[in-house]
Amino acid sequence: MIQTxxxxxxxxxxxxxxxxxxxxxxMLADHLxxxxxxxxxxxxxxxxxxxxxxxxxxxxxxxxxWSAETEILxxxxxxxxxxxxxxxxxxxxxxxxxCDRFADSTRMYQGLSRGDLRATVDQLHRLxxxxxxDLTVLIDMDPETGLSRAKGxxxxxxxxxxxxxxxxxxxxxxxxxxxxxxxxxxxxxxGAQDLAAVAADVAxxxxxxxxxxx
Length: 214
Known about the structure:
Layout lengths: L8 E6 L6 H14 L4 E5 L5 H11 L8 H25 L3 E5 L2 H10 L5 H11 L6 E6 L2 H10 L12 H17 L4 E5 L4 H19 L1
Parallel strand pairs: 1-3, 1-4, 2-3, 4-5
Helix pairs in contact: 1-8, 2-3, 3-4, 3-5, 4-5, 4-7, 6-7
């Protein structure tokens, strides 16, 4: 069983595609390292060798490649491997883990995108993961702006972007609802600000959490 007690701090970033969370993850990791903290910067799906293999399966290819139910199983398998091999060892060593997406993304993208499967996602999470972040930073972004940014990257991992604007609008509403559901760990930041302003807000929130965890 995964142990949930640790001496480190587990921070996750969430948001719709193109919200800037990946950039903010990197900026926060650099900021914390400059303060002398040990930081593990990771991502989902991915973050371990096995999970990165699953990432290629779920983020590339035709939007209809997998059913939502199959995706839930794939994401849960990737998350379990990531937790065992990367996240938990780092936390037990007292490090700060900064993760680009975690279970909240599965609750949204697979739990809501093509039907009401949230209960299935939560059931698998309780059975196989048993871990929530200590702090989740939600970068809120206008869906049309976010999708334009995401498609502008012209990368290979665009399977979810290819579902279109309607999905991004649904995901934004869902993430804001999650923030209300879990107010003790969620902090919402306005992603429409310039990059430096968002980073400053993130740093202030995280530093307060680290002080409380000391």
